[in-house]
Amino acid sequence: MSGVDDEKTPKGTNTGVTPVSIEQQCFDKNWILQLNEPKQFEHFICSICKQVANSPVELCCPQHKDIDESTIVGENCLKQFLKANSNSCPVQPHENIEYSRCAALQRHIGALNITCPLQFQQESQGQNQRNEVIVCDFKGEIKELNDHLNNVCPLKISNCWYKPFGCEYNCYKHKLNDHLSSEFKLHFDLVVKFIQTLQEEIKQLKSQIQMNENN
């Protein structure tokens, strides 16, 4: 099994790891170590990113059933790896991988004690880039993380409701209502412009269809 010490991915291998939401990515070992001992999660390490596996799955391909190294990976890490490496197995290069979900491991990982990951990120960066003194004192278990981030955390950054119409503003969740109230005209104008653009596209499409029918 993989330990919790830093490990390197073999050269020439494309891990395919791209930025994903904090709810999907594997868990930072340094964050987990705040409230847990290494031995509590040393067997839960993702073989791809070397962090604590999120939604762990076990690779059970017959091509490497006898190897001693860990075949546990985070589900999202596996999806990204397969996409970036033509569906080749991350343990040994071959196609048609086989894997299964690890419910028992998920329960153990879900029971690890944690602080708020956004608070940890803020402290790790050494400053609050928004120049606001906002602290999240959440302490709980990993299985409670999604509910905390989606519904409670004061550090979660929210996009404006009108982002689909062109508003790029984002802010702490508790300040979103202030933005919505103060920028009513901006949002109204964005929606009107969006509808006008849509109407023009529909008009052009109808015109093109009519031209095709007449030819």
From TrEMBL:
<protein>
    <recommendedName>
        <fullName>TRAF-type domain-containing protein</fullName>
    </recommendedName>
</protein>
<keyword id="KW-0479">Metal-binding</keyword>
<dbReference type="Pfam" id="PF02176">
    <property type="entry name" value="zf-TRAF"/>
</dbReference>
<keyword id="KW-0862">Zinc</keyword>
<dbReference type="InterPro" id="IPR013083">
    <property type="entry name" value="Znf_RING/FYVE/PHD"/>
</dbReference>
<dbReference type="GO" id="GO:0008270">
    <property type="term" value="F:zinc ion binding"/>
</dbReference>
<feature type="domain" description="TRAF-type">
    <location>
        <begin position="143"/>
        <end position="179"/>
    </location>
</feature>
<dbReference type="InterPro" id="IPR001293">
    <property type="entry name" value="Znf_TRAF"/>
</dbReference>
<dbReference type="GO" id="GO:0043122">
    <property type="term" value="P:regulation of canonical NF-kappaB signal transduction"/>
</dbReference>
<keyword id="KW-0863">Zinc-finger</keyword>
